[in-house]
Amino acid sequence: MDDHDPYLVPGLVRGLAALKTFSPQRPEQSLAELARALGVTRSAAFRTVHTLVREGYLLQVPGETRYRLGPQVLGLSYGYLASRELLEVAQKPLEALRDALDWSAHLGVLDRRHVLYLIRSPASDGLSALVHVGSRLPAAQTAMGRLLLSHRSEPEVRKLMADRPRAEVDAVLETCGQDRKAETVAHHGQFESGLCSVAAPVRDMSGTVVAAISVTKMSGTVTAEVTRAVLRAARAIGKGLGAA
Predict the structure, then answer these.
(1) How many CA atoms lie within 13 A of 118 on its CB side?
(2) Nearest-angstrom CA–CA distance, 14 and 171
(3) Which residue stretches of the chain have pLDDT < 70?
(4) Span 183-195, pLDDT tens digits
(5) Strands 195-203 and 66-69, how do they pair?
(6) Residue 217 · residue 103 · CB < 8 Å
(7) How far apart are CA 81 and CA 83, in angstroms?
(8) Cα–Cα distance for residue pair 119/133, rounded to 1 Å
(9) Model pLDDT for residues 60-81, shown as the tens digit of each residue
(10) CATH numbers and ranges of domains, the chain
(11) Residue 229 — φ and ψ, nearest 5°?
(12) 170-186: buried (b, 16+ CB within 10 Å) or exposed (e) per residue?
């Protein structure tokens, strides 16, 4: 660890280092073994282990003072592998969709009450995509976000928007009810006047909506041809994820 880097969080670095000490050859460790591996005192190792156990990243072996990796580690691994598979499967269909329509194409997922953009394939005009990979926009104000929210239950939406005014949450829930009735969601000019977007859901093998795609362009209308093309691309991505 670079001790001179002012942005590093030593406790987090130590916790990650502790997790890395586990392996198939060393599936369980005592507190003393962890302290030696980390090069710290037992009391310092205890604080790290206590935190990891409390958060589910380590489990204490029943009846022993030894520890092994917990279910939260698997959850992180699954999330990484799932997102990587999604990106790999979605890239080519999105590029084909962009080329066929000359609308900017995007892939996004719900990140609390925001939509997180994972892929951006810009159109030739260069003006039809105001977001970039990694951008986070309020879900209720985008086509993809509205679609993703519409596939969540009312309690889930209320939890995601717990920090927002009640009137805003009620308005979002009303919109969700309307969006839930349609296969796609069209959105007009929330962030840029004249900008139109249409989004469709991406499902995995269980039928769960795990992401959304959208196309965006400076256009007065979203035609039926555009809507059908977005649906076809979303279904192609879903098929790549094992959806029926």
Answers:
(1) 24
(2) 44
(3) 1-3, 75, 77-82, 126-130, 189-193
(4) 999 988 655 667 8
(5) unpaired
(6) yes
(7) 6
(8) 6
(9) 998 888 999 988 887 676 566 5
(10) 10-69 (1.10.10.10), 79-240 (3.30.450.40)
(11) -65, -40
(12) eebbeebeebeeeebbb
The confidence score (pLDDT) of residue 124 equals: 82
Alpha helices in the chain (DSSP H): 10-20, 31-38, 42-54, 71-101, 143-150, 154-160, 166-179, 224-240
Q: Are 201 and 151 in contact (CB under 8 A)?
A: yes
Look-up: residue for tokens 């990891």?
52
Half-sphere exposure of 203 (CA within 13 A, CB side): 12
| pLDDT given at position 3 | 60
CA angle at 194 for the pair 228 and 182, rounded to the nearest 5°: 35
Bridge partner list, 211: 202
Please give the helix or strand (H or E) that residue 199 lies within, else none. strand 195-203
Q: How far apart are CA 202 and CA 189, in angstroms?
A: 24
What does pTM read for this prediction?
A: 0.68
Tokens of 230: 């977005």
User: Residue 220: what pLDDT?
Assistant: 72
